[in-house]
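Ticket 4471: requesting a sanity check on a complex prediction with beta-D-mannopyranose. Repro inputs:
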Amino acid sequence: MSEVKIIGANVPNVPWQDRPSDDKGRLPVWRYKENPIIGRNPAEGVARIFNSAVIPYEGKFIGVFRGEQTNGIPYIYLGRSEDGIHWEYEKEKIPFKDEDGNDFMPRYAYDPRLVKVEDTYYIIWCQDFYGAAIGVAKTQDFKTFTRIENPFLPFNRNAVLFPRKINGKFMMLSRPSDSGHTPFGDIFLSESPDMEYWGKHRHVMGKSGKWWENLKIGGGAAPIETTEGWLLFYHGVTGTCSGYVYSIGGAILDIDNPSVVKYRCETFLLTPEEWYEERGFVPNVTFPCATIHDAKSGKIAIYYGSADTYVGLAFTEINEVVTYIKEHSVVTGEDTEIGKR
Ligand code: BMA
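Returned structure tokens:
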């Protein structure tokens, strides 16, 4: 079998820990032994950090962190790290400005993603725009942050930007929803010439018949470009008599037409099993928001929120995870069609 490769930058200092020798090896993803990497009360005025995104930056790492303030309102904070594991946070919230340089702070902000396209870094999050909606801001230096005025209508969450333009357009995954604890939801794709105006919306994939994702799904980490297509780690949700359970799933989207799902893994890749995933503010949540990956070695570090309380780190290797997804792939006609009806 030919080796699957990541197409992208070499990140030789990608956080990494080999699969533990006592791991039964059932799944291609394993956890960092020292999890969680971010514990409770991580910064002044912040009770919990979870559902956060990180990226390599100038040989080190930078990230945008969902910080649940002690007044209960979520906001986004910038953090920096030498090793991608130990983080220091800026005391002040990220200071968003509008195009004219005036303050333009969202009322709240949560579940940020951080993606570099060409020479610009984009932060995408969920904010209040008469209900849950997608917020976007851009920066080139992590000092000034220009917030793009409400690019999507409410209600929508889980916006995930592709790390490069496809056919000359920016591409964004998102999950239209309601404004509450949405009991439904599929992943859609939208395109834009400029990050401001979005259209040509297409359906990518919906919930499946498998118990772990039979209620709703949502984009997770920015897709990873590979020789097999775009590798997407996403979240799948089921409902139980005591609440939702969020697991991590994997799919591979067509490289030129990413509304087409080539492979979709019928098993979860990670599901709440450890104390920091099962116990916390919201039990039984594993919520991926970012990866750091190294094209040369194929190593992938997955960052995920745990129980709406902590940040966990998990690892996989590109050939292993893609092979597993392909071997356990079940796709429907709705997955494999272009989704433009
Ligand atoms: C979703 C989002 C996430 C959260 C999850 C579980 O609706 O609000 O931020 O992790 O619920 O509570």
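Notes from triage: The pocket of beta-D-mannopyranose is lined by residues 51, 110-111, 181, 246, 282, 285, 287, 305, 308 (CB under 6 Å). Leaving this open until the requester confirms.
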